[in-house]
């Protein structure tokens, strides 16, 4: 890639495009991510390398997409989640740190159970972040991941394929609504159920940042008029599917903590509490079977 200077052609270096990106976006970190992703080189050594035309055009297209409001994660096409690098695009929610806490709490519940070959269910799997993290971090887990969206399952399938044969054989992806997608023989045998259901109320959608409300799938964000409809479906099915002493772990909005605990107890689960996220806000419902 070249640029005219004094009627001549001067080879562009990545340093030049990086400076343009920082000026355009006002964000050095994002510009660096885009540069490393499009150049395939490591920071800062790549800065003085000449920009190949194809790579430079790809970099410039990333800048245009971000400047138009598209989330960084979708522009990159992938995002880190715990130990994984997951493919993400507008068919699925962007994996967030709060959900990493959900996985951590879920792993603690698995440790409490001490099951030899635990059956784990991920309800509403989206990109597969929860199910794939648990299966990759715990080698004896058999995971079943459900989602009503065929588009989301296509992303989860791509992420599963990228993990290799040791994990692929221990994760099943099923299309359907929450528990309904699971085979009947799993009833009463599930060691751990995990979910990051939609928990935004319809009227709250307009209050979200534009890069969330205008880009991420509304089906995965909005639960209904109250924001609790999806959680109700997850909690209601738990007693029939969970094994004794097993647990349901679900991400919630902080203001839903009290209602979520009451919902779990009213559904017949033995005890329920809410764990905090990294900022100390109530975030993770833990409800255990008797």
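^ structure tokens above, recovered residues below v
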């Amino acid at each position: 890639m070249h640029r005219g200077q004094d009627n001549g052609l001067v080879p562009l270096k990545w340093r030049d495009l990086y400076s343009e990106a920082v000026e355009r976006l006002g964000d050095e970190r994002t510009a660096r991510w885009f540069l490393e992703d499009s150049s395939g080189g490591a920071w800062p050594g790549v800065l003085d390398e000449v920009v190949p035309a194809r790579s430079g055009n790809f970099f410039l297209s990333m800048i245009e997409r971000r400047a138009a409001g598209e989330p960084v994660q979708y522009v990159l096409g992938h995002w880190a989640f715990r130990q994984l690098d997951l493919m993400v695009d507008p068919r699925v929610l962007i994996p967030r740190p709060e959900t990493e806490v959900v996985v951590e709490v879920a792993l603690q519940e698995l440790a409490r159970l001490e099951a030899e070959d635990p059956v784990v269910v991920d309800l509403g799997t989206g990109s597969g972040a929860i199910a794939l993290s648990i299966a990759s971090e715990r080698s004896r887990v058999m995971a079943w991941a459900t989602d009503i969206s065929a588009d989301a399952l296509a992303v989860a399938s791509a992420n599963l394929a990228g993990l290799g044969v040791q994990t692929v054989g221990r994760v099943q992806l099923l299309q359907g609504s929450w528990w309904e997608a699971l085979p009947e023989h799993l009833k009463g045998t599930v060691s751990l159920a995990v979910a990051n259901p939609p928990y935004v109320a319809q009227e709250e959608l307009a209050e979200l940042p534009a890069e969330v409300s205008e880009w991420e799938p509304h089906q995965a964000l909005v639960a209904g008029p109250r924001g609790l409809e999806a959680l109700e479906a997850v909690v209601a099915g738990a007693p029939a599917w969970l094994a004794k002493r097993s647990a349901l772990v679900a991400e919630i909005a902080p203001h839903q903590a009290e209602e979520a605990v009451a919902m779990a107890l009213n559904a017949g689960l033995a005890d329920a509490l809410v764990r905090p996220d990294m900022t100390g806000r109530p975030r993770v419902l833990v409800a255990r079977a008797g």
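The chain has two domains: 2-68, 89-288.
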